[in-house]
Amino acid sequence: MNVRLFLWQRGTAALMLPLIAVHLGMIFYATRHGMTATDILRRTQGSLLWASYYGLFVTLASIHAAIGVRNILIEWIALTDREARRGAILFGIVLLVLGLRAVAAVVLS
Amino acid sequence: MMLRFIKHRGSVLWFAALIHRLSGLALAIFLPLHFLALGLAIEGEAKLDTFLHWSSQPLVKAAEGGLVFLLTVHLLGGLRILLVEAFPWSSGQKQAATMAAALSALAAIVFLTRVF
Amino acid sequence: MSISETSEAPSELSVSLWRGGKEGRYETYTVPRRDNQTVLDIVTFVQRYVDPTLTYRFACRVGVCGSCTMTVNGKPRWTCRTHVSKVVSDGRLEIGPLDNLPVIKDLATDMTAFFEKWQSAKGVFAPSKTRDDPIEQIMPESPARQAANAAIECINCGVCYAACDTVRWNGNYLGPAALTRAFTLVNDIRDTGNAERLQAVAAKGGCHSCHSHQSCQELCPQSLNPTAAIASLKRRTTTAYLKGEITP
C-alpha cells in the first residue's frame, strides 16, 4: 500500500459516506412501506438522478473494495504484489460490470 | 496456541480493526450477489418480485439485518480510521470504537424491528 | 496467624523456555520463587544454575537499553522490568523469543531486519550545518519540537515490531519503530533529508500500510505512540503527494 492507493481508498471511502447514508435511509423507507418491485422500479426507471447516484456509488465501491481485497490478498493469503494486484483488478472489474448492469436494470425501462 | 495469539491482541481497538476487515470481506462477497439480484429486474418486474417475495422469509430478513449491521459497522470502523489518520489525537479512542459497535447494533435492531 | 501460615505464595515456579531455533520446543524448568523477582532474574537463574546452554540477551538490567526483550506469556516485554508477580498465571510462565524476527537460538533473535528497515525509512539525521556554523536555535515549545520529543525516546527494543500484526502479515512493512524515528526527523528543523524521507515512507510498505491496531502504542514500555506518529506521516505524505513533491 503506497500513498497513491491509500488516497484512492480513503478518498472513495469518504465520498461514499453520504451515499451510504442515503442508501440506508432508502432501505428503511422501502421496507417500512412494504414496497414491491413494481413500486421500486416505477421510481427508478427513466430517472437520471438514480442513474447518476447509483452509477457513482457502484464505481466508488468497486475501487474501494478492490483495494481492500488487495490488502487482504497480500496480508492474509500471502500473494505477491503482482498476483494480488491482478486479483484485485479482476475483482474490481467484476464488481463494476455487475454493478453497472444492475443500475441499468433498474433505470432503463 | 490460538489463545496465546489473541492474548495481547485483545484490545478494543484491535477487535475494531479485525471486525472492520472481516465486515469488509463479507460485504465484498455479498455485493456481487446483491448486484445479480437487482439485475433480475432486467428480465422484468415479475422476476424481481419473485425474488423480493422469497426475501420476505424470516431467515432472509435476519440475513439482511446482518448485512445492514455489516455495512454500518464497516462504515463506522472506516470512520474511526479516517478520524485517527486525519487529526492529531493524543491517545487511544476506545470510547469511539465502542460507540461505533453500539451504533451498528442499534441500526441492525432498528432494521429488524421495522421489517418483522 | 503468622504470615507464613496464611501466605499462599508458592516457593517454586514452573517456567517454559523456548529452546532451539525456528524449530524447537518449550522446555520446562523449576526455579525458586522469590519476592521482587523479574522475568530476567528467572532466565538468568536457569542459565547459571540449571542449564548453561540457554542463550539469551541482556545488558543493563535496569530498563534503559532494551536488550532483554522477550515474549512473556504471549506479550513482548522488557524482561528486566517485568515483575513475575504481574505476569505469572497459575504459577506458570512461558518465555519465548520476540515474534516477527528470525530466532538465532533460544531467546535471542536476529534484529538485522529491524535495523535495516530503520535505514530504509531514512531514520537517519541528515545535517545541514558544519561545526563552524552557529548552533541552530530550537525552541522546545514549538509544535514540531514537542511532536518530535514525544516520540524521541525510542531505544530500539523491538517490542512494537514484535507486537505489530502488520509486520507479521506484510514483509515489506517498515514497522512502527522505524516510522516513528522518521517522524521525529521530519519534525527536526535542522534536518535536510525530508524529501527523500517522505518518499521512503510513502512507498510500498511505508506508513500507509499501518492499520492503526495500536498494539505498538499499547505495549511500548516507553509510552510512545507510534500509531499517532504514523498517522502524522500519512498526513504529511498525502499533502506532499498532492503537491507533487513525491512520487510513489
Largest sheet of chain A: none
Residue share in β-strands of chain C: 5-15%
| Largest pleated sheet of chain C | 5 strands, mixed
Oligomer: heterotrimer
Instruction: Give me the Rg of chain A, rounded.
Output: 16 Å
**Helical proportion of chain C, percent range:** 25-40%
Terminal residue distance of chain C: 72 Å
Give the % helix of chain A.
Answer: over 70%
H/E element string of chain A? HHHH
Question: What's the helix and strand layout?
Answer:
The complex is a heterotrimer of chains A (109), B (116) and C (248).
Chain A: H1 3-32, H2 37-44, H3 48-75, H4 81-107
Helix pairs in contact in A: 1-3, 3-4
Chain B: H1 2-7, H2 12-39, H3 45-54, H4 58-86, H5 94-115
Chain C: H1 3-6, E1 12-20, E2 24-32, H2 39-50, E3 69-72, E4 75-78, H3 84-87, E5 92-96, E6 103-105, E7 108-109, H4 112-120, H5 143-151, H6 159-163, H7 165-169, H8 176-186, H9 194-201, H10 215-219, H11 226-242
Parallel strand pairs in C: 1-5
Antiparallel strand pairs in C: 1-2, 3-4, 3-5, 6-7
Descriptive notes:
The complex is a heterotrimer of chains A (109), B (116) and C (248). With 109 residues, chain A is mostly helical. Chain A has four helices and no strands. The N and C termini of chain A lie far apart (42 Å). Chain C has a five-stranded mixed β-sheet. Chain C is 36% helix and 15% strand. Chain C has eleven helices and seven strands. In chain C, helix 5 (143-151) runs antiparallel to helix 8 (176-186) and helix 8 packs across helix 11. The chains are: A mainly alpha (109), B mainly alpha (116), C alpha+beta (248).
Question: Which labels suit this protein?
Answer:
heterotrimer, A: 109 residues, mainly alpha, 4 helices, B: 116 residues
Give a quick rundown of the structure:
With 109 residues, chain A is mainly alpha-helical. Chain A contains four helices and no strands. With 116 residues, chain B is mostly helical.
